[in-house]
Amino acid sequence: MRIVIENGHLVIDAAEIAPLLDLDVAGFRQMMGAGHILTRTERGEGDDEGNLRLTLTSPMWRLRLTCAGDGEVLKRSRVRLTAAPTGSPSRSARDSDGSTRGTLG
Q1: pTM higher than 0.85, yes or no?
Q2: 7: DSSP letter
Q3: CA dist., res. 28 & res. 15, Å (int)
Q4: Residues 6+ apart with CB under 8 A from 27
Q5: Tens digit of pLDDT per residue, the chain (105 long)?
Q6: DSSP per-residue letters across 4-40
Q7: Fewest beta carbons within 10 Å, which of 3, 21, 49, 87?
């Protein structure tokens, strides 16, 4: 996955990001337009100089992408912020490698 940097702005492919927030592309665009998905960009300092971190927060998930200066995603984490919908097989927040980052109870 890669984040495109155009004129100092980050451009993300909705088709890649939407599934990470348990959304389809149309739902992702609708939630972004309505302000239900918040974004935050941080620039690295010191040892992290040249890297950046993009955080997307939806009502259910916080997705954090740590990227090299050219937009290559170096690390990805995803944490569930709310309980899974009724009938969901899992209530654990899982990182991109499948490891549990926290359990909602």
Answers
A1: no
A2: T
A3: 9
A4: 18
A5: 888 888 878 888 999 999 999 999 999 999 999 999 999 999 999 998 989 999 999 999 999 999 998 889 999 999 999 876 665 544 344 444 443 343 332
A6: EEETTEEE--HHHHGGGGT--HHHHHHHHHTT-SEEE
A7: 87
59 alpha carbon, distance to own chain's centre: 12
Tokens of 97: 């490698």
Query: Could you give the CA distance from residue 14 to residue 58 in angstroms, rounded to a whole number?
Result: 14
Q: What are phi and psi of 44, to 5 degrees?
A: -70, 150
Given a contact cutoff of 8 angstroms between Cβ atoms, the answer to whether 14 and 25 are in contact is: yes
Under a CB-based contact definition with an 8 Å cutoff, are residues 44 and 36 in contact?
no
Whole-number CA gyration radius for the chain? 14
| Length of the chain, in residues | 105
Structure tokens at 91: 């209530």
